[in-house]
Design brief:
heterodimer; A: 7-stranded parallel sheet; globular; B: mainly alpha; Non-ribosomal Peptide Synthetase Peptidyl Carrier Protein, Chain A; 5 helices
C-alpha cells in the first residue's frame, strides 16, 4: 500500500531523543521505516526510547549539546560509523521562565546554547559531505509558539526559538542547491517533561488560564511528531524555509 | 544570608528587606516578583520551589528559612 510518509532507507538523527517530542518523533519515524540515530545527554532515557523503536539498525549516542565545539565531531562519527544522514531533527531544548528583572546572562546562556547555537552547529555539520547522504535532505528545528506570540517571563526563551525561524529561512536558501530542506515546527504547550518544569511556576489559576489559551487543549508529543514526519518525508519535498505551527489553536486568537 | 536578602531587595525594588517584612506588604509584590524569586532560588541556590509553595510563605524570615543556611551563605 502506498504510504506518502514512507521513510524507508532514510537515516535520521534526532536530538532530545530521550524524552518528549524527540522520543515521539523517533518512534514514529521508525514505524515509517526510518533508521534513527538517537542523541541525548540522558543515557537511560535514550535506551528507553531505543527499545520502543520498530525495526533494527538504530543507534543511541550520548552527547552534551552545550559543548558546541563537540557537535561536529559527534555527527561526523555517527555518519562514519553508522551511515550518512538524510534527516535531522533538533528537538533538544531547555526551558527558561525568568522575569526580565532577574534575566541576567548566566540565567539564559545554557538554554540559548542548547536551543539555538546547537541547532546552528548541527545543521552546519549535517550539510557537510562527510555527514549528508547527498539526497532527500530534510532538517526540522523545533521552535515554539513562543517565537510567534508574546508571553511574560519567557523573553529569553522566545529569543532562542525565534532565532531558529530566522536561521531556518536563511539556511533553506543556502542549502537548497544541495537538496536539503530546512523547516521549523512551532508547538504550543505539549505534555512533556519540559512542560512539567514550566508548569511548576504556575499556580492553579495560571494553569487553567494557559490551558484555556489552547482551544484544542494541551498537545501530546505525538501531535507534533506527525507534523515533523510530514516535513521529513516526501510529503514535504517542496516545503522549505517555513514554519509549521502545531499549537492547538493558541496563536489563532 | 546577606547576599540572598540583597537579591530579594533587588527583586522587590527596595533598598533593604527585614526578616519581619511581609512579602505581600511590598507594593512591588506581584506574580512576576514571585516568579523572580523562584527563578533566583533555582538558578543561584539549586532550590526548586513551586508557585504554590511560595504562596504559603508570608515573611522574609520564612523565605530565608526555606533556603538551607549553607546555600544562602555560599
Amino acid at each position: 500500500m502506498y504510504n506518502p510518509l514512507d521513510l524507508t532507507g532514510r537515516r535520521i538523527l534526532v536530538t532530545g531523543a530521550a524524552s518528549g517530542i524527540g522520543r515521539s518523533v523517533a518512534i514514529l519515524s521508525s514505524r515509517l521505516g526510518g533508521n534513527l540515530a538517537l542523541v541525548d545527554l540522558d543515557e537511560t532515557g535514550l535506551e528507553e526510547t531505543r527499545i520502543q523503536l520498530e525495526g533494527d539498525g538504530h543507534i543511541g549516542h550520548v552527547c552534551d549539546l552545550r559543548d558546541i565545539a563537540g557537535i561536529a565531531q559527534s555527527s561526523t562519527k555517527i555518519a562514519r560509523d553508522w551511515g550518512s544522514l538524510h534527516g535531522l531533527v533538533h528537538a533538544a531544548g531547555l526551558p527558561c521562565v525568568v522575569p526580565l528583572r532577574v534575566l541576567e546572562p548566566d540565567r539564559y546562556r545554557e538554554m540559548f546554547a542548547v536551543n539555538t547555537e546547537a541547532a546552528l552547529a548541527l545543521v552546519r555539520s549535517f550539510q557537510s559531505r562527510k555527514v549528508y547522504a547527498g539526497e532527500k535532505g530534510s532538517v526540522v528545528l523545533i521552535s515554539s509558539v513562543m517565537a510567534l506570540v508574546g508571553s511574560a517571563t519567557v523573553a529569553a526563551y522566545s529569543m532562542s526559538k525565534a532565532a531558529l525561524i530566522g536561521m531556518a529561512r536563511s539556511m533553506a536558501i543556502e542549502l537548497a542547491p544541495k537538496g536539503i530542506r530546512v523547516n521549523c515546527v512551532a508547538p504550543g504547550f505539549i505534555n512533556t517533561p519540559m512542560h512539567g518544569k514550566v508548569a511548576k511556576f504556575w499556580d492553579a489559576e495560571q494553569e487553567s488560564r494557559m490551558k484555556a489559551l489552547h482551544p484544542l487543549g494541551w498537545g501530546e508529543p505525538e501531535d507534533v511528531a506527525g507534523a515533523i514526519a510530514f516535513l521529513l518525508a516526501d510529503t514535504g519535498k517542496w516545503i522549505t524555509g517555513t514554519v509549521l505551527t502545531v499549537d492547538g489553536g493558541y496563536s489563532a486568537q | 544570608m546577606e547576599a540572598f536578602c540583597a537579591k530579594l531587595a533587588d527583586i522587590l525594588e527596595v533598598d533593604e528587606v527585614r526578616p519581619e517584612d511581609r512579602l505581600q506588604d511590598f507594593d512591588t509584590w506581584d506574580s512576576l516578583s514571585a516568579l523572580s524569586i523562584i527563578a533566583v532560588l533555582g538558578s543561584d541556590y539549586g532550590i526548586q520551589m513551586s508557585a504554590m509553595e511560595l504562596r504559603n510563605i508570608r515573611t522574609v524570615a520564612e523565605l530565608t528559612a526555606a533556603v538551607p543556611r549553607e546555600k544562602v551563605e555560599s
